[in-house]
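RECORD CONTENTS
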Amino acid sequence: FYPDGSYATFWGVKSMPKLDYASPLTQERFVHGPRAPIRYWMRLAHGFRLDVAHSIGEGGTNRKNARWLRALARAAKEERPEAVVFGELSYDAIPTLRAHTLDGAMHYAGFAHPVMEWLSGRDVHGRPVHLDTQETWRVLWDHYQALPVQLRHSMYTLLSSHDIPRALWRLKGDVERFKLAYALLFAFPGSPAIYYGDEVGLSQPNPYAKWQGDPYCRAPFPWEESAWNLEVLTLIRRLVKLKRTHPALRLGGLLPLDAGKGVLAFKRRYRGQEVWAFFAPEGARLTLPPGVDLIAEKEVAGEVEATFLLFQPV
């Protein structure tokens, strides 16, 4: 509270007061006590997402933020040792995660933003931006390298969310680029998150000229199957299966591949198994050794034209 009787809030919204973690009562009610929400829910669930995690702290600010993130994560793991605690970190998550705070974070700065800027030509606020393939790879690679090793596979990688415009809408309904983006999401290290509706090609009702996420990105799910893009659904089901069944995609390291100009390419490698990933929004002709197109489930070799490809050499 302030001397005039007002109190700290999130973004000035009076119904969303900020907690002062310097207060012993807050510490008891929200961290240490048996009825603390994070402890209560970890007796029932297996993970916890801290909303606006970078704003948690003392005195209505984010002072001692890392200390209290560690305390909240510790409380969760005291109730359930295998609990996963990750945070909504809208900005660069690296400094917070390198302070040994959480098990991961929503990967906006190191994945969602660069990928969608590359494919759409606009940033998350709708401003024109030009990020070429080489620059996109550099951002992805730099963030991957900067992450603590133990967190590289537990980052919440995403393309759409409840706070930003949907990916398909940002791509002006370009289904091929949307599919490429999701193939990249599942090929890249991390724990891929499918925002509800993306799996059936849900976009937004607002015109592209009216750049806005919330509330349009939170539109109801279309339950009528006639409104679904079954091509997108089939692809995402296939990608989910590949992520679950191929150790290289789930646990493998990340190494760059040189596939020519305009192609973002890398390999995932785990215990001798490799998966090569290629992404070319404008299309590319690739020269490949004998192997398998994992998405199409067919053998390929020699010259192949593709906009995206997950390939396993034999």
